[in-house]
Amino acid sequence: MLIKLLGALCVIVSAVALGRCKAAQFSSRRRQLAGLQGGLLSLEQQISYTAAPLPQALAEAAQAADTAGGLFAAAAGHLQRQDGLTAGEAWLLALEQSELQQRDRQLLTALAAGFGHSDGDGQLSQVALLRERVAAAERQAAEEEQRLGKIWRSMGWAIGSVLVLLLA
After folding, report:
1. pLDDT of residue 47
2. What residues contact 13, with CB distance under 8 A and at least 6 apart?
3. Which end of the chain is less congested by CB atoms within 10 angstroms, N or C?
4. Residue 148 half-sphere exposure toward CB, CA atoms < 13 A
5. Which residues contact 133 (CB under 8 A, 6 or more apart)?
6. 79 vs 38, 119, 151, 159, CA distance in Å?
7. Average pLDDT of each block of 10 consecutive residues along the chain (168 residues)?
8. How far apart are CA 45 and CA 65, in angstroms?
9. How far apart are CA 113 and CA 126, in angstroms?
């Protein structure tokens, strides 16, 4: 009897942990997008106010990007190594190496098109447009986190309970 009780407890705890893990993925995406927002805002300010070179501007943006700082730092690193990469190529390479979801990578590839090739105003408008798109994606991710996160957490309990009833 005690073994069955411990087994049931293990099944429920496992199912709850699985549901919480899936819910945490939604939260992680929202935090990454918020970090990207901060990084893009910093990049915009670095280009606009300090007229910093792109490697330096990207390095500063990495510090402001919080959870998404690795993307900006990787792009800055590629440019600082002077491998002959353009800023757009460095950005795309950093995106490929990032842990972002595919749909977020596709969103961010828009920056690579003229990144580093146009004047400051052109780059500012490009970064501002991307920041607006990331803000929209962040709002959508927050809605998904709120709606689907609750569902996954509740579903963990439900699935665990159903499995215990079926196996008992």
Report:
1. 83
2. 160
3. N
4. 15
5. 107, 110
6. 21, 18, 43, 49
7. 87 91 89 91 86 84 87 89 82 89 88 73 84 92 88 87 86
8. 13
9. 9
Q: Supply the pLDDT for residue 33.
A: 92
Supply φ then ψ for residue 117, to 5 degrees. -100, -25
Query: Residue 145 belongs to what H/E stretch?
Result: helix 120-167
**Between the CA of residue 73 and those of 103, 110, 150, what are the distances in Å?**
21, 18, 34
**N residues, the chain:** 168
Burial (CB count within 10 angstroms: exposed 0-12, middle 13-18, buried 19+), residue 53: middle
Return the pLDDT at 114.
72
pLDDT of residue 152: 87
